[in-house]
Design the sequence.
């Protein structure tokens, strides 16, 4: 990601933002090129602050952020080229969907406005509800009309903060197609999410943000490979834990085994896929009845934790 | 700029705000009507001190403008829609100006009407005095709106600070501490009323009308510049 293709659309250099004693974004240096970039991280990782600084909405404590080589902060003309959809779902409930998109177009000096408004509403497939007050919209519809407001001025750069919140599966597919089409038109799109699979489906490249730091960046497959190598803890409850534990420890996919005070087995494995296949076979062979098999640390936070700690080791 | 003006106006014209502004506007008129029903109505000096000075210029107008000024930036900040407004190619003054005009628009119509009716009754249909009070009310609305619009950009506690300002600064200090008068919007409003009709508020000293006019313009311009500057430097939620 960094220093790859020449002339990145978005460039941050040692970008840092403090809120009192808390560092939200910590010396993040990255280049973003046309295409879809997924900004991935657990809640509180600093994704929204980073996006807001990229849009010029938030100050930087130190470091710099440029778009098309220009500083974004206090650069109003640049807003013609950026579309920002922030994470907060509040909209002007007293306006209809069409009025809202029209207002967004007017504020960005779009001409001809009428055509742009209809195109943006079409893009999010909300023509049928466009004349209803936004306060009557479902959460997913609000997200779509906000996206239409973001698209109305046909921006070259889209900064979308958790845009799929509240969207149903059909809307997600529609949204993914839309973003892929925009990317194929040469636009630069940054999509933040805390859901790994969501970003995997949309993004060509991924930025992993943890505790305000850039933990990993690059092609999604490389990130996936790193994730697959991480050790997982798996909890196993069965009727003969000691018997199963002594058998499990022989498996190649297992690094360590221990019994917890409740008589359950905790397995540390670097190859969970193999373990998933081998464990039931082993239980059958040793005549042990499995009651429960639960991954203990499959949360996104633990994945990030591993990547960050791994990076520091 | 028209879009922002209309957006702000729509935010001002919510039923709860209209109810509040309407209720506040009726209060001095209602109190004056009740006073006039008393067989031995109090002298004009008492009406000026209590109804026009304390109630209208010192409480009703600031409270009404505190409520409407929220519609400029306070509401946008608390419901996190300000980014919609700041992500525009407009220079920042083109955002502040229509928003300020939007929040001035309603109280600058309603409050002078209240002032006009109240003073017409209180002064016994004296048109010159009524005109003086109406002009004073217009000046007060514009000045208070400028202060509270800036305050909303400055702090999340604008309502609390605004109320404290109304009670402590305008209600106490500017009335009882010598020299503070020049920094009080209420005092300037009264000075305008006295300046337009010198028979009114004749009991006490007032800043000259010309000086008051200059001070009012300076205050509005300075607060406008501070608001533009604040909008430029603050984080948009």
Sequence:
């Amino acid at each position: 990601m960094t220093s790859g293709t020449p002339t990145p659309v978005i460039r941050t250099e040692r970008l840092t933002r403090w809120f009192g004693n808390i560092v939200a974004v910590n010396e993040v240096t990255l280049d973003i090129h046309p295409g879809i970039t997924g900004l991935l991280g657990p809640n509180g990782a600093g994704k929204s602050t980073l996006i807001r600084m990229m849009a010029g909405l938030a100050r930087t404590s130190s470091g710099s952020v440029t778009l098309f080589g220009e500083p974004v902060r206090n650069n109003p003309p640049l807003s013609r080229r950026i579309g920002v959809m922030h994470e907060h779902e509040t909209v002007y409930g007293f306006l209809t969907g069409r009025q809202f998109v029209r207002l967004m177009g007017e504020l960005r000096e779009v001409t001809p406005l009428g055509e742009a408004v209809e195109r943006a509403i079409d893009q999010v497939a909300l023509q049928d509800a466009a004349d209803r007050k936004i306060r009557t919209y479902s959460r997913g519809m609000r997200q779509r009309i906000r996206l239409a407001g973001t698209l109305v001025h046909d921006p070259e750069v889209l900064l979308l903060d958790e845009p799929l919140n509240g969207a149903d599966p059909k809307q997600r597919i529609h949204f993914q197609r839309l973003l892929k089409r925009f990317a194929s038109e040469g636009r630069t799109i940054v999509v933040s999410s805390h859901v790994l699979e969501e970003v995997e489906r949309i993004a060509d490249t991924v930025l992993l943000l943890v505790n305000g730091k850039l933990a990993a960046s690059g092609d999604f497959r490389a990130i996936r490979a790193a994730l697959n190598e991480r050790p997982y803890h798996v909890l196993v409850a069965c009727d003969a834990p000691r018997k199963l534990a002594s058998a499990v420890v022989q498996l190649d996919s297992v690094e360590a085994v221990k019994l917890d005070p409740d008589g359950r087995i905790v397995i540390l494995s670097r190859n969970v896929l193999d373990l998933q296949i081998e464990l039931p076979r082993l239980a059958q062979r040793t005549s042990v009845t499995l009651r429960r098999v639960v991954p203990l640390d499959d949360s996104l936070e633990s994945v990030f934790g591993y990547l960050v700690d791994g990076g520091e080791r | 700029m028209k879009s922002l003006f209309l957006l702000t106006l729509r935010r001002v014209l919510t039923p709860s705000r209209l109810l509040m502004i309407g209720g506040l506007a009726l209060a001095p008129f209602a109190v004056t009507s009740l006073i006039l029903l008393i067989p031995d109505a109090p002298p004009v000096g008492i009406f000026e001190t209590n109804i026009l000075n304390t109630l209208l210029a010192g409480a009703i107008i600031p409270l009404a403008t505190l409520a409407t000024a929220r519609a400029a930036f306070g509401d946008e900040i608390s419901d996190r829609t300000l980014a919609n407004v700041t992500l525009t190619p407009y220079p920042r003054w083109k955002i502040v100006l229509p928003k300020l005009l939007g929040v001035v628009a309603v109280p600058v119509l309603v409050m002078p009407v209240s002032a006009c009716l109240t003073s017409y009754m209180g002064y016994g249909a004296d048109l010159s005095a009524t005109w003086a009070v109406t002009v004073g009310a217009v000046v007060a609305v514009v000045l208070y709106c400028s202060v509270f619009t800036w305050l909303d950009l400055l702090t999340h506690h604008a309502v609390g600070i605004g109320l404290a300002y109304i009670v402590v600064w305008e209600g106490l200090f500017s009335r009882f501490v010598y020299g503070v008068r020049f920094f009080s919007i209420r005092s300037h409003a009264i000075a305008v009323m006295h300046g337009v009709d010198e028979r009114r508020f004749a009991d006490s000293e007032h800043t000259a009308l010309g000086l008051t006019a200059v001070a009012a313009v300076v205050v509005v311009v300075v607060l406008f510049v501070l608001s533009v500057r604040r909008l430029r430097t603050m984080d948009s939620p």
Notes: The mean pLDDT of chain A is 86. Residues 202 and 296 of chain A are 28 Å apart (CA to CA).
